[in-house]
Design a protein that fits this description.
heterodimer; A: about 350 residues; alpha/beta; nine-stranded mixed sheet; about 15% helix; B: about 475 residues; 14-stranded mixed sheet
Chain lengths: ~350, ~475
Amino acid sequence: MKTVINKKCSTVDCSTNNCRMCKIKPSNEKEVQILSWSEAVQHQTIKAVLAKLPSNLTLTDGTVVFVPAGQQTKDPIQLAACNSSNETLVVVTEANSNLTLLDTARCGCGDKKQETKLFILVGQNATVRLAELRCLSEGQRFNGKIWASVAKNGQLKLFSGLLGGGRLDCQTEILLEGQNAVVERYGLVLGTENGRHKISDTIRHFAVGTSSYIMTRGVLTDTAFADWKLLTNIGSRINNCNGRQDSQILLLSPTAQAEITPSLEIGTDDVICSHSASIGQPDIQSLFYLRSRGLSMKQARQLIALGFFRPLANQVWDDETQETVLSMIESRLECRTD
Amino acid sequence: MTDGQIKKEDSRLNQELARASRLPARFQSTPGLTRELVIEISRQKEEPEWMLKKRLRGLKLWEDKSMPTWGPSLDGLELNKLSYFVRPDAEESRSWEDVPMEIRRTFDQLGLPQAEQKALSGVGAQFDSDVVYHNLKEEWERLGVIFESMDVAVRKYPELVQGKFMNHCVPIGEHKFTALHAAVWSGGTFIYVPPGVEVTVPMQAYFRMNSERGGQFEHTLIIADEGSTVEYIEGCSAPNYSTSSLHAGCVEIFIGRNATVHYSSIENWSKNVYNLNTKRAVVEEGGTIEWLSGNLGSCITMLYPCSVLAGRGARSDALGIAMAGTGQHQDTGFKAIHLAPDTTSTIRTRSISKDEGRASYRGLVQIGPEATAARSSVNCDALIIGSGSGSDTWPTMRTARGDSELTHEARVGRIGTEEVFYLMSRGLTADEAVKIIIGGFIDPVVRRLPLEYAVELNRLVELEMESTVG
């Protein structure tokens, strides 16, 4: 069973019942604690964890999702719809715990500029799976910042989907700080109209035996533009590491534009690293085949785009969310594949 | 030849080259760069007025521009202590007999006259700032092929040189070191191949930087007219000093309709040289540029040959190999700028870093708004040997066209222990096994070289790899 929770609110003008910031207790409260910022800073464990954040990430507000040591959450937790244009979410999991969080926000912020910050601290032997999906209105501005740290034997699986929007700027930095820490980072982008998507994903390996995988897929229509900068950094003498990147952009319009810089910075020999990147248009033979089966060009392109996203959507562990992701993409593509 | 014989031969070669490095110069500028020096270079070379103007413009831009804020550190480069113009005590000649014995011996040791007889249509040899030997076989001369030192070409063929020399291919003010090059360039090669002429035998130039705290700034200009073909090979080396030297050459290649240029360079500068080179080709409709770039020496290399695909169906193929050992940072790569429809580019590089050396690939593929149906493929693999060594890959793929196709792939890793184990189980030593694996790794690049150069490159890599294992 999925638990739906709303984030805690610290804004004074919050009064609506469907605001994700309002105080509604989760059903599995023992396993997961949702704390407002004022509560979080009183919590000794969380306070100690937050103190470890880099000085440039000092927080003064936000909602904290806290999973105490040894707690194994059975059900995924779903965050409710968003009404706020600025929000900060901090996820703290202690040793030997796990957490699955779904944030499929259908943002109702209109054309307002939206800014979100997400901080994830994965404890020793802890596992965090987090999927966030933002469906933005045309022309909407969005700034997102994700920072994560994974401790020894910790695992983080992070999925981000950005659909539509105007000018988007998203930066993600993940630090693998403990031995054998693992991160899988999945990014999905659908750029439409005159959207400008600037995305930067950085993974830094600071401990031996760490593994990282970045997989990104983007589809651009109309005059959309995407600029992806991916970096896997493995420091000097950080041995026995794996780093992989796989990024692809499908251009559905001759006026769409894209830039990918998939970078590797490796400071030692005991690594296996690779990256692959491609920018291209739908395969002519696939289009021809689909047309020969009676589909219109528009339907064929749409189907190819959905198929292109499918391997990435499959990485979302929750079937219902998978279908949500694909149906949202489908509806967005509906009038964009002429 | 056995390993022992190779070592003995190398030792003898090094002694000979060391002897040549003590040769007195006919003219050596005082350290530092001044307006007076720039005017003096132009005066000594009896250049036309337009070239002096270019030089002075270069000097102005050099003073105005700041050092690059990206890439490897250039802090060790003592620009104020370099001699920017060093003339050897020799006139340019078309016969090896007229080249002074000590200089000739250097090139003998490097195998240049022998290679000329066997496999080359023309040869140029530059010692510090001046070309000392330049010759083209008669059969090619009769077909209208021009192969001259750049200094001679400026005076002799202004109608071919003036419009193209550091104008729209490599502009003077592109960066600080192109400005420096424009101010103090000296020597280099000029090649003109008339329409329809296919030069089937390669031409070669060899650049030797001999003086301590010296700088070499040779300029190469190649014009391949419509439907022509030419292959040009450059080799570079310098003796080792404890002080830094600078090589800031410039290569401009103009490829006409349906013409083809194969450009190969094996740069084996000594480990005190900063190699900050600029190379670019402009390719017209149906033309092809094939780059082959081998970078083994120098402490810092920053070299990114660039193809500007300006005409429909123009093509660029680039192959590169970089090897970084102790104290070396090879920051290399290729660029392909697609400006016209149906243009294609491929880039393939291999790098090896060992003994705390660092090899970086920095590349760019850019597809402009007019380049319909452009295609590009990039592949760069890196081998890291030793835990202190490093490798970076910074490729950028940029397209302004939805109907373009760009792919990139790269792998970084070390020599697999299973591979070494397998070869050792077949009776090889660990050292031999590693050499074979590395030979296979660089094979795609080496295979593209003429046989003599492939052997030379393999040997250089083997020498660099010595004592890597165990």
